[in-house]
Structures
1.
Amino acid sequence: MTAEGVARRATIREVAEAAGVSRSTASRALTGHGYVAPPVRDRVRAVAHDLGYVPDATARHLRRQASQSIGVLLSDLNNPFYAGLAAGISAQARKRQYTMMLADDGGSAGVEAEAAETFVALRVAGVIVTPVSAELGAYLGRQRIPVVEVDRQFSAGVCDAVLVDNGSAAQRVTQQLIGIGHRRIALVIDEMHWTTGRDRLAGYRAAFAAAGVPLDESLVVTAGWDVEAARVGIRALLTRPDPPTAVFAANNVLAEAAFRTAAELGRSIPGELSLVSFDDVPWMSMVTPGVTAVRQDTVALGEAAVSQLIDRIQAPLAPVRTVLLSASVVSRGSTAPPA
Amino acid sequence: MTAEGVARRATIREVAEAAGVSRSTASRALTGHGYVAPPVRDRVRAVAHDLGYVPDATARHLRRQASQSIGVLLSDLNNPFYAGLAAGISAQARKRQYTMMLADDGGSAGVEAEAAETFVALRVAGVIVTPVSAELGAYLGRQRIPVVEVDRQFSAGVCDAVLVDNGSAAQRVTQQLIGIGHRRIALVIDEMHWTTGRDRLAGYRAAFAAAGVPLDESLVVTAGWDVEAARVGIRALLTRPDPPTAVFAANNVLAEAAFRTAAELGRSIPGELSLVSFDDVPWMSMVTPGVTAVRQDTVALGEAAVSQLIDRIQAPLAPVRTVLLSASVVSRGSTAPPA
DNA sequence: CGCCGGTGTGGGATCGATCCCATGTGGAGG
DNA sequence: CCTCCACATGGGATCGATCCCACACCGGCG
């Protein structure tokens, strides 16, 4: 951080002149590529430091046709799941000497498309995305920009992906509920076309099948993304004549809606209703009783995504890979045998 | 999003050739600057669209010496306060046609300095930061890169800042506690050199002074940043022979530590202990009783920061400004008159 | 008839860093 | 003594887009 209050920023040409060498030599001295006599190298570096020279990444990028930035496109930074993912990606990107362009699409396909074009304009080295459609993968694929899908997968076989083993985790947590005696277990789910929803549903079904317990299909409720709509759906579910004895919420937003609705209806947890969540967020360990949840390690997810992306950048033609991370069930007090 | 699977990305030269004009004309047609005959303009644009041409932002930036990216440096994306801020900044930046380079310094001055250099290398148009030292403002100032400090201020008079009116909000919430009869109100604070800590402390003191209530200085506890250390400090506070009847936690992390510690010690809230927090985060409305908190509008904070930064970019020599946003107190069940 | 100004287009330099290639030097070996 | 190679440096083109300037064309007016 050295530099006197120069009017304009120093360029490599100025460094070269101040050190009495050519631009070429200065470049070699600073980057370490090619021959430079050690004393010259040291002199150039000292001069650069004194001038507060910081190489222009855009110029370097233009010449080398290779950037050190990755684009990251997430659905909602206000949701702790995505925020954690961003933190994990950010940390790992920094370790690997990449910078991160972040955009938040709020779950909108239009914004997603717009962000994709921005990433192309910036010529990012690659993109990490929690996709909302298959468009982005296809578009960036055509532009020869590597893409890694995280959390959800829309472009299987086309893009790499880093996912959580939704099926297995959902099955385990459902199995726990069945194991302690629940038979009427509702699944409250966002929607079933995305891999997250589909696989969590499949795991839920598999647990019933494995236990030989019949499944009441009417207990699978699609609650969408709108929190208010979810609360309405859950209220209807809980006030049925034959209500479920347990609710499995397929994401943290739905778990919040379920928790709040249960409180409004005066249903005690776990006495009258057991609750489990897919995705563990801070409030679940703050409330009493704590909410049993499937914990996805967002940091590991982010790190794996960055690693996968960098591998892909270095080997564009390697076969497409899908990485599955396991998730663990954190048991807290929100589950108990049915009354 | 049109483009056949071309091997290489189209450049403006290729667009120009395909349209039968020169690069200059193509540039004018696409950017809208300068004379172009309307039919030519339309033809060039059609060709560009067919080729899936996306202008190279780095080349444009290099030539124009002006970028459309801003750098954003925050302390901790896993903290909902910073995540919300990032969301607000992201949304506003997108509206204003800027892209956002995001970094997370984890509260470390070393990482902050490193990120600052990266932002210089990328020649960002400006930087928004929740600072951890005065270094960044000074360094980027020397590099003639506009900086806006958010939430905390280290470079008063040098950089613009967008802050919350910490003093007033802290005074109001303290006053509420005094008003319902509390006299022994502890302030648990991170540290007192940053403006956030200093001003919240000042507000707390001002409330006592205004009410003419003497203040027991031993009730002001510096708990630092480490959650475990905070819990130890709070436990010591609550197990004193003359414990406080209310705790004012100066940020959401400390509020969490206080909430958990009270539960561990079996102190009922608000029966035996009232709790208020500076900074409202989701769990505070999920727990029972809810926690009374000062709500900072992170979206407004982020939007104001972006607006301020863009104003500064457009008028580098305008006088330095500090914008104060007010905060509101959200009353929930965690406060009651002392026993 | 020639000059002027408005309209429209193209050539070439430029931003900053990189890197291929040519050039230069000195010492060693034939 | 000359050649050859390792070492060391500089010149100039290049990445893609922009933009200043020169130029060409045309109609109108003195």
Note: The first helix of chain B runs from residue 12 to 19.
2.
Amino acid sequence: MATKVLPQPERDEIRVEAVLQALGEPVRLTIVRALADNPAGVCCGEIELPVTASTRAHHLKILREAGILSTHTDGTRRISVLRREDLEALYPGLLTGILSAKQ
Amino acid sequence: MATKVLPQPERDEIRVEAVLQALGEPVRLTIVRALADNPAGVCCGEIELPVTASTRAHHLKILREAGILSTHTDGTRRISVLRREDLEALYPGLLTGILSAKQ
DNA sequence: TCGGTAGTTCGACGATCATCGTACTACGAA
DNA sequence: TTCGTAGTACGATGATCGTCGAACTACCGA
């Protein structure tokens, strides 16, 4: 039950370039969309992706280090949640704009 | 005076991945910010950038092909304008969010 | 017509990146 | 404790990307 939170940048440490660069990759964008659809958080493995587990972990790390998502442990599972509040505070409208894209 | 418009994607041809990937580069983000400050358009060479002319042309091409800016000729000059309306229609709030970043 | 100016195109090069397989850690169940 | 599951870390590899200089095109003024 949400025992530990993996290292992530504070709100004031988040940089736009890192956020945009992280979002500019199809697989990562898919992950972000999946998280947006599940406000309660999603277990990494539950998102269907055309890559192996190690690549998946790689992308999740990039998203976490960019400040886009937060990950906490739950047994052997890792639950990821979109950092909506932080992103909205820093770049109001950005997430909404991206998620409103046709596909 | 504004004789020709360089090839660019129609609004419905613009893809989010391309837009985000284009914006996720420091030099290109600088260009976009400069264009946002000058709604009337900016001549490429007027933006101060830490790169050579050829690299500058390269970045402008990527931004144009992503659908972020529009370029028309004016004699030997090329005037670039941010495609605010198109971007706002496709991804409402995205530009505002990005431009509101501290730096 | 002849520069000169503004910008693009074309390789080329080095750096970064996405991907993978393998090995590893951490946890829960039997 | 032993096994299976969930996920990470570590190279390695091939592809993409940012950068540059040099050569080229287009336009304007003298």
Note: Strands of chain B lie at 42-43, 69-74, 77-82.
3.
Amino acid sequence: MPAAQPPASPDVAAPEPADDPAPAAGAAARAKGRPRSAAADRAILDATREALAELGWGGLTMGHVATRAKVAKTTLYRRWPSKNELVVDAVASLFDDLVMPDLGSLRADIEAVVAQFADLLARPETQAALLALFAEGTRDPQLRRRIREAIVDPQKRLVRQGRAAAQTRGELAPDTDPETACEEIDIIFDTIAGTVEHRVLVSGEPITADWTRRFTNLLLGPFPSLVTD
Amino acid sequence: MPAAQPPASPDVAAPEPADDPAPAAGAAARAKGRPRSAAADRAILDATREALAELGWGGLTMGHVATRAKVAKTTLYRRWPSKNELVVDAVASLFDDLVMPDLGSLRADIEAVVAQFADLLARPETQAALLALFAEGTRDPQLRRRIREAIVDPQKRLVRQGRAAAQTRGELAPDTDPETACEEIDIIFDTIAGTVEHRVLVSGEPITADWTRRFTNLLLGPFPSLVTD
DNA sequence: CTGCTTTCGCTACGAGTCGTAGCGTAACTG
DNA sequence: CAGTTACGCTACGACTCGTAGCGAAAGCAG
């Protein structure tokens, strides 16, 4: 899972393996010399999460991480070119715990996901890293892409799954146009993720069951106290 | 508008002016020695915004700002204790341009505000600063408080104004409980601000008129393609 | 076992930033 | 005028960065 330049390649991005000198190698292990220690990878990522929780984004330095992971600073730089990329990998796995429960109603499913996301955002590692990563991403398109691929986009599955389950239950009408469905998924995802993040990380208010209910009302039903004429 | 420790006071926060040695001074100018240059204040804040747009949050250093503003680094530190506080003041004024238009319908008002906010978030100074500030705020409660007071809370007036206008027009029912109304304002604010920020700064997608219409639909009406039984 | 290759830990380096201190000078007040 | 405060400038120790060079260790092919 690390940023993983292939062993002996300097740092060239090489996103397209098209004209590779060793073609059709597949996923074969191209091991010739001493292999990289997998234990070091784990130690580094763990140390990164711990340091993130203790020192925050600004206090996190490559030197600290290396020391805490009992690894030379050089080793760290051999695998991750910068703090940004390291933190992406260290934080991405935290989001894997989110699941779509299928509790029998769209409302219950949404509330459950919101609660899970709120719990995740309450963790200090997540708080310290997430917004800082997003901030760096606004200046570095490549980093933003990595963030989307590793953290953001994988969570859209939750919206897709919940939506599909609701359609199976007959709560939502089946898709007509795939294009429209995709845009709808995007907008719902931005709304749920953005709102919960803003509530927790910016406003600094807790996510209570009552708040979740109100928010779900706003999503599912009409605007509160709207006079329907 | 700067962080403004009163001239000769070291740095004590003194949020409550209750037991002030010189009481009832009002807004009088307590000038004794050489007054601080207002031109320097403006030059520093302008330089901060420019450097923010050019170099981003990470590239912004106190030294750069001082040089660009043609001011000694010492002068800068005399007024703002850190980069965070400086940027709060430099960015806060950008948000003053947001206005509640009163276009005759709740839907039109919401769409107009979303469009304004989207334009603001498209500016490089805003992009570079906003999320980074929020990120720092998650670790420093005092900074978060300053951010809220200077940037976030003042914009809640937009929700209040739009809501009041809609109530006058009869689109929304009048308030019953002030407590409930306050929570409702909070949740609407978090939803609009959070969603637009997530769309622009995280997903990196533009805010089009079409997207704004869909988002307003989600807010005002029921969930898209919801089967009402 | 013997080379070959690559990673490892360690040390050291120049460059850059941080926030502060000291100094003499400038500006404004009574 | 004296008193007070802000200003520009220089210099400082502490820290982080990312890189380079070294000898040693670990795995693989013959």
Note: Chain A touches chain B through 56 residues (CB under 8 Å).
4.
Amino acid sequence: MDGSSFPIARSSLPDAAAERLRTLIIEGGLLPGAKLNERELCERLGVSRTPLREAFRMLAADGLLVQLPNRGAQVVALSSDDVRDGFEVMAALEGLAGELAVARVTDADIADLRALQAEMETAHAQHDLPAYYRINRAIHDRLNAIAGNAVLGQTYRTLNARLHALRFRSNLNRAKWDQAVAEHRSMLAALAARDGAALRDLLIRHLRAKQQAVLATMNNQDSEILLGGNEQ
Amino acid sequence: MDGSSFPIARSSLPDAAAERLRTLIIEGGLLPGAKLNERELCERLGVSRTPLREAFRMLAADGLLVQLPNRGAQVVALSSDDVRDGFEVMAALEGLAGELAVARVTDADIADLRALQAEMETAHAQHDLPAYYRINRAIHDRLNAIAGNAVLGQTYRTLNARLHALRFRSNLNRAKWDQAVAEHRSMLAALAARDGAALRDLLIRHLRAKQQAVLATMNNQDSEILLGGNEQ
DNA sequence: CACTTGCATTTTGTATACAATATGCCAAGC
DNA sequence: GCTTGGCATATTGTATACAAAATGCAAGTG
């Protein structure tokens, strides 16, 4: 919201620390459930406790950290219910993004998305999972940008970060992957046809499929997914 | 998210300060755009600057405050675009809440909601606007509770608080009010009939109507709505 | 041997001191 | 008269000191 005001000035010590921690959590440098020792983190980040604690509060508000009074902060460890609920909300948000995007999308946007889709198909053909995830994320971000709703974008990014802290990447079998790429193809077609309702439904189904895949992974923990319980 | 963990222990100085500030902002004790002086607020709340600043960070993450580096915090002043965007997201969230609620609602829930609806009709008949708003909010909160999605509830409450900081209450003419009450009647019927798609559509239309009303009020600023620009 | 109790240590919570930055005012110059 | 520079003041930013609480360990007790 807002963000429009002029004094562009991001950055302050707490913001920088929060950003650094956010990355650590999302990229897996800090695993779910890990306890965060203030003094130790202060040294690692080169800041004192005051700005670090402000960063903690920000991340806690984003749902990436849980703070227990007198017992410090730890990286959130999402329960199966949290994941189910989170993806349901994500599906609704992406559905909205699709509807809004249809109303504002330009031919140039579609050309860009087609290029991304082509990259995605290439990554898929070459079994390049990291590239696939990167492009996948770029496409979804692009769609949200086209939607042009700042509140939606903000909400989406926050929730996305929380779910990414799970590090559910590794879970993707061949069939699911093929399916996901095909879904993206349909989505692009719906967008090009300016069919908002269709795009919305496709996005919701797409997210529901992801939800199911992640939940399945969480339950049979034979995959490399890491959840809770691990002290740093 | 989460919140399920056992050590119930809410409350700490920063949490308490944040809660107090949140109330001040939403209830109008601090108007949009008001600059928040740390030392002064410290005295008013009886806390020192450290916990107050942590509270600032929490509220900023919720979008109730804007913090400018070296220039302090001020109550957010939503632009017309922010309001448009915010209500669009709210509509999507409430729509989801409706769909989920249908899948879980019990007869007892419906009885409760019918009672609330009756109260609402009474308040409407008696032109009791404050009571109407209170009951209206209770109904929407109840629906979200029935939906049973913690992430949705959290997201909903946060965004709701931000929009309520606008204090758009005063804007409701007779026709709009009648319409809103009628819509609530239809929504309750759809819920009782377990018609998720219908309830979803009704909720989205309901929210869109509210959006339009608020935007109209914002634009003709002859009403008593107060937006931005007012230093405390 | 399990369980409690008390102490030492660690860790978090809050206040405050000091530093850096911004703000407002007044005078000097154009 | 308007602008500009510089100083005094106020305000925010960060580090740190002290207080309070939790944690871990060891000794004592049933």
Note: Residues 12-14, 47-51, 69-71 of chain A lie near DNA strand D (CB under 10 Å from a C1').
